[in-house]
Design a protein that fits this description.
This protein is α+β, with helices and mostly antiparallel strands. Helix content is 36%, strand content 15%. It contains five helices and five strands; from the N terminus they run ααβαββαβαβ. The chain has helices at residues 7-13, 18-28, 42-50, 101-129, 150-153, and strands at residues 33-37, 80-87, 90-91, 133-137, 160-165. Strands 1, 2, 3, 4 and 5 form a five-stranded antiparallel β-sheet that branches. The mean pLDDT is 91.
C-alpha cells in the first residue's frame, strides 16, 4: 500500500530538519501517519502551554522567546515533530497511550519504527559530516527503554519526537 501526506502534513513537513524529513519519508513507506506539528511560533507554543498541551512555555517571564523544541533553529528548520499514526484509515488517539493496552502497543510500535528510521539516517549523517544527533520521544523522555516508568508518565506526549545534537 502507498501512503502520501495531505496538505497540512506537507506544510508541516517543509519546516522540519532534513534528518526528521528523511525519517518521516522512510516511515511513510510502511506506515501511514500525519504530521500534526512541525515548527511552532512562540505565540502558538505559549497557547499550547497555557492549555496544558505542553509543559514548555513559548516565552520567558521577561517576554523573550523560550527555547522550546518546536522553535525554528538557526539553521531555519525545526528539530521536533508531532506525528499521529493512522491505522485502518483512522488516527490513533494520543490520550489513550498508557491507558488502553492495545492503543499503547500501536503507539509504541509506530514510535519504534520512527526511532529506527531516524537512527539509520542519523548514522549516515554522522559518517558524512561527523555531526551526531539523538532522538528523544514523548513516551520515553529519559531514553531508558522503559516507556511506562514514573518519570515518563509525568507528561505523556505520545506523538512528540525531537532530535538533539550529541556532543562528544
Amino acid at each position: 500500500m502507498s501512503y502520501a501526506y495531505g496538505a497540512h502534513s506537507t506544510a508541516q513537513y517543509a519546516t522540519l530538519h532534513p534528518l526528521l524529513r528523511a525519517a518521516c519519508d522512510d516511515v511513510l513507506t510502511i506506515h501511514d501517519h500525519k504530521i500534526e506539528v512541525g515548527a511552532r511560533l512562540p505565540d502558538a507554543q505559549q497557547a499550547a502551554f497555557e492549555a496544558g498541551n505542553s509543559k514548555v512555555r513559548g516565552f520567558n517571564p521577561d517576554g523573550t522567546p523560550y527555547l522550546y523544541p518546536h522553535r525554528v533553529r538557526d539553521d531555519g528548520t525545526c528539530w521536533a515533530v508531532d506525528l499521529i499514526p493512522i491505522v485502518n484509515g483512522k488516527p490513533l488517539d494520543p490520550k489513550l497511550f498508557g491507558i488502553d493496552a492495545w492503543e499503547t502497543s500501536r503507539w509504541t510500535r509506530f514510535i519504534g519504527l520512527f526511532e529506527a528510521a531516524f537512527a539509520m539516517r542519523a548514522r549516515e549523517h554522522r559518517l558524512r559530516t561527523n555531526e551526531q544527533f539523538a532522538l528523544r520521544t514523548g513516551i520515553n523522555w529519559n531514553r531508558d527503554a522503559s516507556i511506562l516508568d514514573p518519570s515518563d508518565r509525568r507528561f505523556v506526549d505520545a506523538f512528540h519526537v525531537e532530535m538533539e545534537r550529541v556532543t562528544v
